[in-house]
UniProtKB/TrEMBL annotation:
Its main location: membrane. It comes from the Bacteria. NCBIfam families: SCO3242_trans (NF045897). This is UbiA family prenyltransferase. It is a multi-pass membrane protein. It is found in: Membrane. The keyword Transmembrane helix applies. Pfam families: UbiA. It comes from Streptomyces coacervatus. Keywords: Membrane, Transmembrane, Transmembrane helix.
Amino acid sequence: MSGGAVTARRASEAGGAVAAGRVPSRERRSPDLPNRRLAWAELLRLPALFTVPGDALAGAAATAATPNHRTLLAIGSSLCLYEAGMALNDWADREEDAAERPHRPLPSGRIHPTAALSTAGALTGAGLALAARAGRPALAVAAPLAATVWAYDLALKHTPAGPVAMAAARGLDLLLGAAATTGRPCEALGSAALLGTHTLAVTAVSRQETRGGSPVAPLAALAATGLLTRLVTRRTPRPPAGRREAAARNRLASGAGPWSRPEDGPAPQPAAAALRLALAAAYAATAARPYFHATLNPSPPLTQRAVTGGIRATIPLQAALTARSGADATALLIAALAPLGRKFARTVSVT
């Protein structure tokens, strides 16, 4: 048989294999791999991850402490527990999403429900293990945080306690940073309450994002945004002298770096106040406008934009809380996460 005939025969056989669905494994898997990665990115809502590190950093700042390696462990634990909640959320809502969001990874068949549930369990275990490495105080906060995440997704989400549970989870996440860094989570209760209030408002709005509804929730969220903006512009009281001296000794032992506190250095107070005001304004601008639009017209598209705006506003709020505690350099680091989150949100939705 001539070479041309062999080539034609192979092309004919390849065409028949394609028509019959018998595509060689290499050719079949290569185009599916990006789709699988995108499906997991959608399931885990990866752009929302940028809203997580600021919790632990704001918690550490509230204790007037310099972030250390235990703070990094707390951030890792927070990231794992947050993503565990995302995977578990879609597993629990797979039947509802089949009717309202058939494009989601589970109802569309791109990810098997068992894989999502297994991922949630594995990430929960990893989050608790990282918290244990950070010390007993951190684990004592991470354990109820994990329990709150699972309780919300499996039982509380569609009950009146749902928004409260979500707010408690975000507040506990901030306390996790304080507990890991210093072992004193109680000193961060004020910041945790403010962050939890914001989360409560966003979650209340999100309950009607697929169907629309009453303007009451976005209006309440708009009012909460105004109150929080006012509160975060105020400087928190300086820590007791003994705690300031301990913090100074810690900084001297580790070397002054980008985490040094402006209250202990030469930075002028007007600059610190200007930073708090700028971060508070960024928070208000990110959240208030979509809330206002959803109040005027609580349709599903505008309500979804309000939820997205509320989630994005978490980062400038964390930064404002951190600046409110006096850690201006840390606040700027947190604020720098916002444009990264917006960039990746163009590809994968945060809701």
